[in-house]
Amino acid sequence: MAIDRTEFAKECVRQAIRFGVNLHYMLAVAQLRSGIGDQVQDNLFGPFRLRQTEWDANRNDDQFDLHFSSAQISDPFRQCAVFGLMAHHAFDSFVSRENRNPSARELYLQQWSDATSATLTADFQKAVGDTAALVGPAADAVLDDPQLASRTIGNVDRQGSAQTDSSPVQKTGSRPALSSPPTPAEPNSHPPQLAAALAPPATAPNPALPPTGAGLPLIQAGLQNVCQQLGVKAAEIWAIIFTETDPPYGGFWGDGRPQILFERHIFSRLTNHRFDQTHPSISSPTPGGYGASGAHQYARLAEATQLDETAALQAASWGIGQTLGENYHEVGFVTPQEMAKQMYYSEDQQLLAAAREILSSHIAGALATHDWKAFASIYNGPTYAKNNYDSHLQSWYAKLVNGGLPDLTVRSAQIYLMYLGYEPSTIDGMWGQRTQGALNAYQAKVGLPLTDHVDAQTFAKLMKDGQAAIQKPVPVA
User: 133, 151, 198, 405: which is deepest, by most CB within 10 A?
Assistant: First the structure.
């Protein structure tokens, strides 16, 4: 029976989230090895062409609550889960040995060392291109639906029937490994839907600065994924988010662009001080001179991109965790341009980049044990004490533990309301008078019943309208 490529891609999304594996890598491997087919050839089974010995060695894993029978090797959706686990282990093995991220080709050879051929790189590039159109729709379908995103194939009962496991994966402890390898795709080779969402208008001064993006709010699957990778609970993550972001504390501004902070001293260093005399407001050996947040930071970034695009993107801190663009390789991206575009896509991507930076800096343990000074000295830098960064982290953590964590549905609604020009106060995931007032105003405008909570009908309409609002071109500066 032929494999439904659309449904297969959705399952790859779910398992990529579960195991911290690059989605496009999973799809490209299945395309490369079988054309995403389920036929048996030379004792190799299913879309990933697994040997029975490979399947049997990986079909049971207590850490990820993975338990399949030997006979289920031909099931393409169960193969997604087992291959996700195999890629996860291969990635960790490579990083442990090489102390860096693998490329997609290197990860593939880590999994199948006998697969070397003169055309492997070209074949893999073709497989990436052949599956590009599957990535965007599958990710949208799964990541826009938290229930769908968390519905992963789990264990089997004693009769061998599939059970659905929606419980979080327990992955504890910190490791130097980053979670997802960069794909071999060129910086601008995005899935069509994502490319359309990120494309700048004709009036934009530089394609590295798309005016809008997908602007997707954080979902439970993305938060759980990061918590599991870092070995921490949600309160620690939220403490970082509230400390790093400016009010209203979201990863995006009201126009759909990510929160950024442009660092003139980093741009100066990366450009060998070439522009210090002619452009001192954006290029200086000394930190500071930030000015207002929001549009002003994009004006500074736009000016810098006209001088040196790559250095400019590296000199900005991005999104919900304010990950520095200079660390693009350490957090799993091929180029700073690719990182910037993914920061436009979703808060999940923003938070995952922050988690990778924490892992690569070996400070997940400090975060887990609430050694705020040790964490701050690396994540914020040696001058953290001047801004009381450690105290802010500690204070936010205490507030979150004692006062409750953000509700992600409420928080998503707040972000979409912000995109539409309403004012729900802060993006804090807390239901209050300002949020209810903004929601009721929206409901009245679109002809929906007024409610005292975010009901499913309102949320579906709000999400659609909010996404449409930020697809409209806005000025870069």
Answer: 198
Q: What is the pLDDT of residue 42?
A: 85
DSSP track, 57-103: HHSEETTTTEE--GGGGG-HHHHHHHHHHHHHHHHHHHHHHHSSPPP
Please compute the mean of the pLDDT values over residues 115-126 and round it to a whole number.
Answer: 83
Helix (H) or strand (E) holding 165: strand 162-165
Among the listed residues 48, 52, 47, the one whose alpha carbon sits nearest the alpha carbon of residue 71? 52
| CA 33, 61, 219, 250 torsion-angle sign | negative
Burial class (CB in 10 A: 0-12, 13-18, 19+), 272: exposed
Q: Name every residue whose Cβ is closer than 8 Å to that of residue 375 and which is 6 or more positions away in sequence.
A: 363, 366, 367, 390, 393
Q: Where does residue 290 fall: left (phi above 0), alpha (psi -120 to 50 degrees), or beta otherwise?
A: alpha
Domains and CATH numbers, the chain: 5-153 (1.10.530), 192-403 (no CATH), 408-470 (1.10.101)
Residue 323 in 3-state DSSP?
A: strand
The pLDDT value given to residue 191: 31
Alpha helices in 69-199 (DSSP H): 76-98, 104-111, 120-143, 146-149, 192-198
> Is residue 367 pLDDT above 90, yes or no?
yes
Average pLDDT over residues 299-303: 95
Q: How far apart are CA 425 and CA 408, in angstroms?
A: 15
Q: Per residue in 186-203, pLDDT tens?
A: 333 333 323 332 233 233
Reading the block at residue 395, the tokens are 């204070």
Could you report the per-residue pLDDT of 251-296, keeping only the tens digit for each?
Answer: 999 999 999 999 999 999 999 999 999 999 999 999 999 999 999 9
Rounded to 5 degrees, φ, ψ at 310 are -65, -45
pLDDT at position 472 is 53
Residue 187: both structure tokens together? 């910086």
Two tokens at 371?
């050694």
Contacts of 184 (CB under 8 A, 6+ apart): 103, 104, 105, 121, 124, 125, 128, 334
Question: Which residue has 């997707």 as its token pair?
Answer: 216
**Average pLDDT of 224-247?**
95
Q: Show the tokens assigned to 346.
A: 């979703």
Q: Is the pLDDT of residue 39 over 60?
A: yes
Instruction: For CA atoms 155, 158, 162, 166, give the dihedral sign.
Output: negative
Q: Distance (Å, rounded) from C-alpha 255 to C-alpha 47?
A: 41
C-alpha 167 chain-centroid distance: 20
